[in-house]
Amino acid sequence: MATDDPGTPGDGKWEINLGVIGTHQRDGWLVDVPDADINYGLGDHIQLNLDLPWTYTNADGRWRAGVGDTSIGVKWRFLDKKHEHGIELSMYPRYETSLSSYSERIGVASPNKEFFLPFEAATKIQEFDVAADLGRHFVQHEGDFWSAGIVVGHSCGSEKVDCLAEIHREWGAGDAQTLLNFGMRWKLNETLTFLGAIGRIFGPASDEQARALVYVGVQISP
To answer: How far apart are CA 132 and CA 167, in angstroms?
Structure first.
């Protein structure tokens, strides 16, 4: 989901998400395959993150591929739950950049560097898990903007399956866009979890405006 939560893997533990992300625009698709989202727990409250995608685009009528926008981040959960229905809080600064000038030329990576500073919160309301985030995006050579989201999860007929619903919005000096997203998380065993989501993005109709978002992947927790 686009909205993050304060959770971290735990001290010395890995959490690796390998997925396929498809973003549909008016003039074609951007597809990250694979998207490698790699997390490591440094203590119980800190998570180190590297997100490295291999991105395809067919915006010019033929498929091209290269290293997509790559990000690094550090999440710090500075408030833990005191009880089951307590609140967790974290901050998760991330820096995103292109690693390849070729990827920038063919349109699979942005030439503009970006720093994102969000805060996340999570709690439990009755039987629902609720997470929300709010942050500011500082983008080189472009207008800065805000993003915020909320995601609600509940078990779906089994303790191993969670269903998720999300609303996520981005806005700034120009146009705004809103993502309505539905997903699921299915724990296959102690180390492997299936992840899936499909969403529709509402906003101005331009060539660059994303229209739909699809994610399929697995989470590995060795």
So the answer is: 10
At position 175, the amino acid (one-letter code) is D
Tens digits of residue pLDDT in 131-174: 999 999 999 988 899 999 999 999 998 889 999 999 999 998 77
Going by C-beta distance under 8 Å and a sequence separation of 6 or more, which residues neighbour residue 43?
Answer: 11
Flag residues of the chain having pLDDT under 50.
none
8 Å CB contact between 13 and 220: no
- 95: containing domain: 14-220
Number of domains in the chain: 1
Pairwise CA distance, residues 65 & 58, whole Å: 9
Q: How many CB atoms lie within 10 A of CB 137?
A: 19
CATH code at position 52: 2.40.160.40
